[in-house]
Design goal:
By secondary structure, this protein is α+β, with helices and mostly antiparallel strands. The protein has helices spanning 2-24, 41-49, 70-82, 84-87, 107-115, 135-146, 160-170, 188-199, 255-259, 292-299; strands at 204-205, 211-215, 218-222, 228-229, 231-232, 251-252, 263-269, 275-281, 284-290. It contains ten helices and nine strands.
Length: 305
């Protein structure tokens, strides 16, 4: 009887441990206690599954309306580029900023984003890790991650906001968020949606970033060439989009195709025959979601009931 009690105790402990693991590693909105409050369910489902977004605190809640902080944004970007496992290995041997100690949970991500020109400090050697982040600031981070150069695109200096907003709207980082105010603090679910859009956006590079030479004491500057899409001639690399350039017929390389190749999006029809996308990660299905641009734009103005 004593042995039976011990076995039952172990089984109960194991069951409790597994239940805690399920909460801590939520895969979609249904795993969060506040999942019904999430507006951008597709984005949260996909970004949680690939490990870019996690729950808050003990992982029970996603906190969709919670404000994104600067250090959270740094962590998100590193997860997007490196994957969660590798990003969590980032360490800072010295404090990257006066208000960010080397042993702070976000120090490695902050140091990485700072070194890559993705984020800057707030002045006086400080970073303000728990400070709010606006949609415009997050958009700039995502644009740099896509390959855009902040200096070349004039996303620095006094007019950085105007240049950033123009470029963000041009590449449609606001897709699915028609009412977003980029100058306002960004919520966690808005950040998930914008990061999700970035995953599907083509990456870019610069054939020439310009140079400066000195000739007989005179400084001559050669301007940078415009950013161009990163492309491939291999169709099998297209896990997100099969978009091709009209002149070369090469395929554009979307962000997720470069940094998260296990994530795939395929055109599909849902159970009601509506044009949709099915997302999979590492060959496991995440879900099927209506292609709202196509469905609402070409099939009907609105669906009710």
């Amino acid at each position: 009887m004593k042995n039976l009690k011990k076995i039952l105790s172990l089984v109960l402990a194991l069951a409790m441990a597994l239940s805690l693991m399920t909460v801590a590693f939520a895969k979609d909105t249904g795993d969060f206690a506040d999942g019904d409050d999430v507006t951008y369910a597709e984005a949260v489902d996909v970004m949680a599954t690939v490990g870019v977004f996690n729950g808050v605190g003990d992982g029970t809640n996603f906190d969709p309306k919670g404000t994104l902080t600067r250090e959270q944004a740094a962590k998100i970007i590193t997860y997007m580029i490196m994957g969660q496992a590798q990003a969590d290995k980032l360490v800072a041997t010295i404090a990257p900023f006066a208000d960010v100690s080397a042993d702070r949970w976000s120090a490695g991500a902050i140091a990485y984003c700072s070194s890559e020109g993705i984020m800057n400090g707030t002045g006086s050697g400080k970073f303000n890790p728990t400070g709010e982040l606006t949609g415009l600031q997050f958009a700039k981070m995502l644009l740099v991650a896509l390959g855009y150069d902040a200096d070349i695109e004039k996303m620095t200096g006094a007019a950085w906001g105007l240049a950033t907003s123009k470029l963000a709207y041009a590449v449609e980082l606001d897709d699915g968020m028609d009412d977003i105010n980029l100058t306002a603090p960004m919520t966690r679910e808005q950040a998930a949606q914008m990061a999700f859009t970035t995953m599907q956006t083509p990456t870019v590079r610069y054939p020439d970033k310009g140079s400066t030479i000195s000739v007989n004491g005179a400084v001559v500057e050669f301007g940078a060439r415009e950013a161009e899409y990163v492309t491939s001639t291999i169709a099998k690399e297209q896990t997100i989009s099969d978009t091709r350039l009209s002149n070369t017929k090469d395929f554009t390389i979307e962000f997720a195709e470069k940094y998260c190749p296990k994530l795939e999006r395929k055109g599909d029809l849902d159970a009601f025959g509506r044009p949709s996308y099915t997302w999979t990660y590492d060959k496991k299905e995440i879900g099927t979601y209506i292609d709202t641009d196509l469905f609402y734009g070409e099939f009907t103005g609105k669906v009710t009931g």
